[in-house]
Amino acid sequence: MGEKYVMTGSFLNGFEASFTKKECILEGKHYPLGYFAVEYLEVDRALLRELERLIPIFQEEFTVFLSARDPSSAALAQQALNAVWDVLIQLPVYRHLEERNGGVHRLLREMKELPELVDEMLTPGTGRSEMLHEWLGRLTKLPESIWDFILDTQKMLMQYFEALPARKPENYALAFGK
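The structure corresponding to this sequence follows.
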């Protein structure tokens, strides 16, 4: 097999992907290497713009929930998170995780019911606090990261791989080395 990489370890959307010379293994399913890169090149850009719009709304509602911790703030934060998730599951990789991550729609209700968990998340220096801030940081940067990935992939295709004499690993390695 190849190397195994944990792509994200967040409490919300953690998943693992393994790579071999010929494939990516995501959640036990095998995909040809480059499959997700091609899918991202074909992503409807309106989805990314919608994600950019929705994430700040969720962050604002989530901040209110963390302060108030009442049913109303939990419901509003959950509604905002659901809107973000509804866009995310349309994107490559995430759409393959949809069934496993159904718990997203219950997350804020469960957090409201576990005040000690939220207390720990809000206590600087705790593992849960670090995990929360890391996840929020990743979520904030996600649309930009996806845009960057798409642009970098397009540049690689045009500048290095377009003129390859054959689609073989050694040709990719030579082009990448240039």
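Residues 13 and 82 are 13 Å apart (CA to CA).
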